[in-house]
Amino acid sequence: MADRYANFANSGLGRTVVKRLGLPDPPRLRRHQAGDPLADGPVLVGAAPDGRLSEPIRKLLGDAGVEVAPSFTEGTRYAALIFDATGIVASEQLRALYDYFHAYARSVKVSGRVIVLGTQPDLTPGPEEATAQRSLEGLTRSIGKEFGRGVTSQLVYVAPGGEGGLESTLRFLLSGRSAYVSGQVIRIGAGTVEVPADWERPLAGKLALVTGAARGIGAAIARTLARDGADVIALDVPAAGDSLADVANSCQGRALQLDLTAEDAPARLAGYLAAGPHAGVDIVVHNAGITRDKTIARMSADHWDSVIGVNLTAPSRVNDLLLSRSLIPSGGRIIGVASIAGIAGNRGQTNYATSKAGVIGMVESHAADLLGRGITINAVAPGFIETAMTAKMPVGLREAGRRLNSLSQGGLPIDVAETIAWFASPASAAITGNVVRVCGQSLLGA
Q1: ∠ Cα 151 156 161 (to 5°)
Q2: Membrane-spanning residues where (predicted)?
């Protein structure tokens, strides 16, 4: 559904009205298009003394074809400001952040990027450094709410020894693929990663399973993974067979009709995957989900059970069986679709919020064990996304959902899909246990 207010706000008359009345000002976001450069202008890199990442970042960006400015030039508009804060070991040294961003805040382009890099507080040698590094979250979340004009802000914690796993994340955050991701904290662990031969098709040779693929976000995920080179199995319930076939055909994949809540569904899925030419699956995206909204006092037991069953129990059962039969190999990816409702809660959605908080719990509880098998597990948590479902919301609630975020607009299904594709990349092997919100930095739930 078209966002008429955003279209008006970006017109000549609309810009004048919005500015005079102080109304929400949704910018036109820079989203990825084929052939786009990684960054649409020069990037300025700064660092606190003794930072360990600034030089690797400069080399990485230069090798990727990004123009890294040797120093600040007055009047230049920068595509991104990157600051290496790994050298900050005490609160007094946080002043380096003020000095950098105070000086250069106004030099960022429309839809520019701010990226701060630090060290996970629990991996620092002592409480003083841990305290200083934890402080970075307040900075980046505030910048995301201050800079405006479509500028996004992220904090990336990089474990010592994790420098080699940074490239996929920098590529994602600098590009238009992360247009609706802001105010997030991403953690990169130590270890080696597989660098794709072609960054435009990093999933070549991989098999991906996408559940709930017949429409909306699921369809966008299937098409995006196919664009990035994956062979795709698009799965949905038999009732969605026609639209499911259309999606599968559009990405030259396979359609699989299966109700994952059926008792024998995990075994049937496992048999299908084992019998295929791939004899397993590299990427599993648990996107299938339903809502049955009522306050808990008015909610039927069936509505509670069905939402928990589809959104949480079915993905857990599928994971357990596929892993027990070794159908997800080393290098595999499990990606859940949670929701900001699972973080902040939502009136009338106790069942949905419970199920989506459970998806986050699934990620957090399995990450360490799966890492030992060479498998990562992460989740996205979408906010207000423009879909057929949100188009049916009452206009007041729909407008509130669109405007109550730092970008003053709803996201698109492609925004969720691009984030999942980043998690799915072989170059993201050092990223696990993360839950990244795709919500334009929603004002709900921090």
Answers
A1: 150
A2: none
Domains of the chain, start order: 31-188 (3.40.50.720), 207-438 (3.40.50.720)
Alpha-carbon distances of 142 from 44, 136, 158, 283, 409, rounded to whole Å: 20, 10, 21, 34, 18
The model's pLDDT over 315-351, given as tens digits with 9 standing for 90+, comes to: 999 999 999 999 999 999 999 999 999 999 999 999 9
- Using an 8 Å Cβ cutoff, are 169 and 139 in contact? no
Asked if 255 and 248 count as a contact pair (C-beta separation under 8 A), the reply is yes
- Indicate which residues carry an active-site annotation: 352
Cross-strand partners of 207: 231
Residue closest to 169 by CA, chosen among 387, 427, 363: 427
Per-residue pLDDT tens for 267-326?
999 999 999 888 999 999 999 999 999 999 999 999 999 999 999 999 999 999 999 999
Cβ atoms of 210 and 230 within 8 Å: the answer is: no
H, E, C per residue of 175-198 = CHHHCCCCCEEEEECCCCCCCCCC
Q: How many helices (H) and strands (E) does the chain have?
A: 17, 12
pTM higher than 0.90, yes or no? yes
pLDDT in tens, 79-93: 999 999 999 999 999
Specify the pLDDT at position 394. Answer: 80
| Structure-block tokens of residue 443 | 């004002």
- Give residue for tokens 């000086």: 103
Which distant-in-sequence residues (6+ apart) come within 8 Å of 326 by Cβ?
A: 280
Integer Cα distance of 343 and 443 in angstroms? 12
Rounded to whole angstroms, the Cα distance separating 436 from 181 reads 8
User: Average pLDDT, stretch 104-125?
Assistant: 97
**Amino acid code (one letter) for 313:** T
Beta pairing partners, 380: 337, 436
Amino acid at 208: A
